[in-house]
Amino acid sequence: MSKAIEVRDVFRVHQTTEGDAAALQGLSLTVREGETVTVLGPSGSGKSTFLRILAGLDRPSAGTVRVFGTELAKLPARDVARYRTHTVGYADQHYARALAPELTARELVGLELGLGGATPAERHRRADELLERVGLADKRGAHPAELSGGEQQRVAVAASLAHRPKLFLADEPTGELDAESAQLVYDTIGELIRAEACTAVIVSHDPESASIADRIVRIRDGRVSEESGGTLRDESIVVGRGGWLRLPEELLRRSGIRTHASARLEGREIVVSGEETSESLPETEMSEPPPETSLVAAVRGVDKGYGSRTVLASLDATFESSTLTVVTGPSGSGKTTLLHVLAGLELPDAGLVAVLGANIARLDRTGRAELRRDHIGYIGQQPGLVPTLSALENVELALALRGLPAAAARDALVAVGLEDRIEQRVSRLSTGERGRVAIARALAPRPELLLADEPTSRLDQANAIAAGTLFVRLAREYGAAVVCATHDPLLIEQADETLRLG
Question: For the whole model, what pTM was predicted?
Answer without folding.
Answer: 0.69
